[in-house]
What we know:
Layout: E1 4-14, E2 20-30, E3 34-38, H1 45-52, E4 60-65, E5 68-69, H2 74-79, E6 81-84, H3 96-106, H4 111-124, H5 140-152, E7 158-162, H6 170-185, E8 189-194, H7 197-203, E9 206-211, E10 214-220, H8 221-226, E11 230-238, E12 250-255, E13 258-264, H9 269-278, E14 282-288, H10 292-305
Parallel strand pairs: 3-8, 3-9, 6-7, 7-8
Antiparallel strand pairs: 1-2, 1-4, 4-5, 9-10, 11-13, 11-14, 12-13
Helix pairs in contact: 3-4, 3-5
The protein binds adenosine-5'-triphosphate (ATP).
Residues 15, 17, 19, 21, 39, 41-47 line the site of adenosine-5'-triphosphate (ATP).
Amino acid sequence: MTKKAIEIIGLKKTYKGGTQALKKVDLIIEEGDFFALLGANGAGKTTIIGILTGIVLKTEGHVKIFDIDIEKDHNEAKKLVGVVPQEFNFNIFEKVQDIVIQQAGYFGISRKEAKKKLEPILKILDLWEKRDTQAMKLSGGMKRRLMIARALIHGPKLLILDEPTAGVDVELRHSMWNYLRKINQEGTTILLTTHYIEEAEALCKNVAIIKSGKIIKCAPVRELTQSLDSQSYTIEISGLNGNLELKEFEYSLIDSETLEVVVKKHQSINELIKALDTLNITVNDLTPKENKLERLFLNLVTESKN
Ligand code: ATP
């Protein structure tokens, strides 16, 4: 039987000043899972992470990490977790390897031992060449990877990442995704928070959607994305002469260079581009008109009313 990496029962948090950030959250994450906590700004994601990592005090409820109650045995629970917070919080004047080695020290790992563990982690995160560089001289993406290296140095069973790819460029995002997939396959349970359903879709097995302090859905990622039956796109075009006729698609022409098209679940963007190409229309840009997460919320709210 798989173990529970995280068990949250009846969790409530009211901040001083009265904001009810969490309203009775129940959440179970199995060992080995790659789990996304998905929600808009202010939904309560960081508060959950803060409680899991002992930074925020809960108001009510129970939280266990690998069966260890985080309140009763905080230090034991802490050893099992690596955290990558949203904000960079290392000393920018220190060198990369010193930042990571120092973190190992907090977990009782000797300097010699930490140096041994450091090499493969920095290599895989493409930071080995930068080990003697001051953190302030790293790019934003490198700083983000340094945060991951630091979170992993004590070999945690659970890695928690708060919006890991915020501000990270596309190329780096993909290499980070690959790295996270790899450590998950090697046995590390991963919990990440994100605003982007696309990120959850690319990486995670299961997802919980949180809205205004409540989990409104918890399901396999695939199940959720399949519930989206269409996606609207805004398309910038050139070469339109006269009327436009796209038989297979629902669309509206905003002006001679802008088109809005609904692509249904059984259709593909490729078919749409081919259809435009047949009419000698060039696609200059194509962007999703609405955020998929917003759509999911709407679907879920409608579902709960029916
Ligand atoms: P984001 O995606 O913007 O990081 P989030 O889902 O992580 O958002 P939280 O940071 O957990 O959301 O915030 C949940 C609610 O609690 C918000 O209304 C926020 O304003 C409030 N909140 C968060 N931290 C504090 C605090 N220290 N004191 C008072 N209110 C807070």
